[in-house]
Design brief:
Layout lengths: L11 H15 L5 E2 L5 E2 L8 E5 L8 E5 L2 E5 L7 H10 L4 E6 L5 H4 L2 H7 L1 E7 L7 H13 L2 E4 L5 E4 L2 E7 L14 E6 L2 E5 L5 H11 L9 E3 L11 H7 L3 E4 L12 H9 L3 E4 H4 L2 E5 L5 E2 L1
Parallel strand pairs: 5-6, 6-7, 7-8, 12-13, 13-14, 14-15
Antiparallel strand pairs: 1-2, 3-4, 3-16, 4-5, 9-10, 10-11, 11-12, 16-17
Helix pairs in contact: 1-2, 4-5
């Protein structure tokens, strides 16, 4: 049974987006709006999995869609929660099997309370990390109010939705000085398709993952969600050599004040001949897979 849903205050932009989507849905037109005005059709067919890297500006939000249910990884910023809601609603999302909030920074959990209060979230995955921000407090209050199950992120723990398996690879240590290194790193596998979601994990966490996993082939993947928005604090050459992705997806805001992604990192990706995809250039990015090589919509 779905949980009671609390009404959330909406900005004018959010109201207009919701009304527009409702009107078009009534006409039989279903699409996903993103913050740059592009559109992506998004029905889930049997045997297909979709990986949505949602444009939330200078933040992170990703959605894995399967025939058996949805997984959300991060929820963008406070200021982008209306756009995130419009995106999820346009896909017809009502239940979320797992919501992974990688670490307690505002650009990853800003919309967490909205997600928890609006959708039927069955389980929340969190690292052992806290913050004193109002954003973090709102998220924790919403988890308690909605009585969600909570899974602590520990290495090698797995969870499944249908035939899709998610494995937690990090955080490994419990005493980082930098909150970004507490980021929950998820490897998602569907058939022969593998996607690595790294949150803002930096080189310290990457080194620990290399030490634990590089000789097991666990890090090798098709699609890498670039660590820390393409910052030079992440994407070490040794880590990339172990991951060997075909695609690198950078979730980043246009004209951001951090100068993300860094040219050094872009050059590193280019030298490896990776296909680089950026939400500030392309808007929301969607890959689909039927268990083989993933394709970009």
């Amino acid at each position: 049974m779905a949980k009671p849903r609390r009404k959330q205050p909406k900005t004018l932009v959010g109201v207009m987006l919701t009304l527009l989507i409702t009107a078009l849905a009534a006409l039989g037109v279903i699409f996903v709006p993103d913050m740059l005005g592009n559109h992506t059709s998004a029905p889930v067919s049997g045997g297909e999995v979709q990986f949505h890297f949602i444009d939330v500006g200078q933040g992170d939000a990703a959605l894995i869609r399967t025939e058996k249910g949805d997984i959300l990884i991060d929820a963008g910023t406070n200021s982008s929660e209306d756009e995130l809601k419009a995106y999820l609603d346009s896909l017809g999302v009502t239940d979320i099997e797992y919501a992974v909030f990688t670490h307690p920074h505002e650009d990853h959990i800003g919309g967490a309370d909205m997600v928890l209060n609006t959708y039927n979230v069955k389980c929340v995955v969190l690292p052992d990390a806290t913050a004193t921000s109002k954003t973090f407090e709102r998220m924790m209050d919403a988890i308690e109010a909605e009585k969600c199950d909570v899974m602590e992120a520990v290495p090698d723990k797995t969870f499944k939705v249908g035939e899709l398996t998610c494995t937690i690879l990090a955080p490994i240590s419990t005493s980082y000085t930098e909150t970004n290194n507490y980021s929950v790193v998820i490897r998602a596998d569907y058939g022969d398709t593998s996607v690595l979601f790294t949150g803002d994990a930096e080189v310290d966490s990457e080194a620990e993952m290399l030490n634990r996993y590089q000789f097991k082939g666990t890090l090798d993947c098709d699609i890498l969600k670039a660590g820390h928005h393409g910052s030079d604090t992440s994407s070490s050459q040794a880590f990339l050599d172990a991951v060997t992705p075909v695609h690198a997806v950078i979730s980043v805001g246009e004209g951001n004040t951090y100068d993300h992604p860094k040219q050094e990192i872009l050059a590193r990706y280019e030298a490896m001949k990776l296909e680089i995809h950026r939400t500030d250039k392309e808007g929301s990015i969607v890959f689909t897979s039927t268990g083989g090589e993933p394709s970009k919509q």
